[in-house]
Predict the structure.
Amino acid sequence: MSALSREWPGNQETRSLAGCDSTSSLSNFLKHHSMKCFYCAVVMPFSVGREGNDGMDSCPFCDRLADVIAMGHITQRDSPMATPLSDPVATQRLALIDLARGIALIAMTVFHFCWDLEMFGLVRPGFMAQPEAIWSARIIAGSFLFLVGFSLYLAHGKQLRMRPFLKRLAMVGGAAAIISIATWFFTPDAFIFFGILHCIAVSSVIALAFLRAPWWLTGLAGLFIVTMRSSLQTPALDAAWWWWSGLSQVIPRSNDYVPLFPFLGMVLIGVAAAKLAQSSGFTATLAKPQLQIAPARLLRFLGRNSLVYYLLHQPVMIALLYAVLKISGRIL
């Protein structure tokens, strides 16, 4: 039995559509419990007693919700306060987005495999320091972060679903902490203190402030962050405590360095793109392809499980390379 059924005294009368004051009882319940709306909490205390509002002692929004519940059209579980999105596109995964994330994971795997080859001395030193390799890393990371912003808006653009958001944030943040601790022990001279998972976690929180902003404003903010890093860098932020920002003139040594400038900008551009796509109806077009052929299904599976794949792919590749080199006698 729900809390509403237990605590609201007029519940039985309402279910039988009897009792003329049952709606008033439920309205009072809503206003004096955790379901209080913004109008009840903020507007009404300043409205009572003002000209034109004398004697107003009930909230029209809670009254309307009470009417609907009393007539049996919705239940507490199905109420607008508990149903985050009415757009079916926003409540289902888009196969194309999962596919794109899977493709980005494969690109990341190829990049990390080349990095592992250099680490084991199978390619010439400095191979991964070439401009092509550096730009490949930036493009791959940028594509991930764009998809983070796009998915963030689809999931929370109409209403922030706090519990799923915090659950995901805890998973990403926890994984980032594990990577930092592990790399501190194995590669202390280049440990990962602000890699892509750290950037995803922090950027997701910052991007919440832009979910209600116009798409063009969010896009401009993202472009500013992407393009203005070099102009904003200053020696005043060279201390290690500021390296996460990307605005120091020091480039720290790290096996994965993804600072907020410029990469937060890609998250905001993703949010802007999703907002524009939804307002124009383009998300319905994106939802049509189901991509059921085998290669696409595999990529979509990887895209749906990107965090697990990210955490496992490097240890697995390094172990396999080590085993092959050990068996072949390249490593004593």
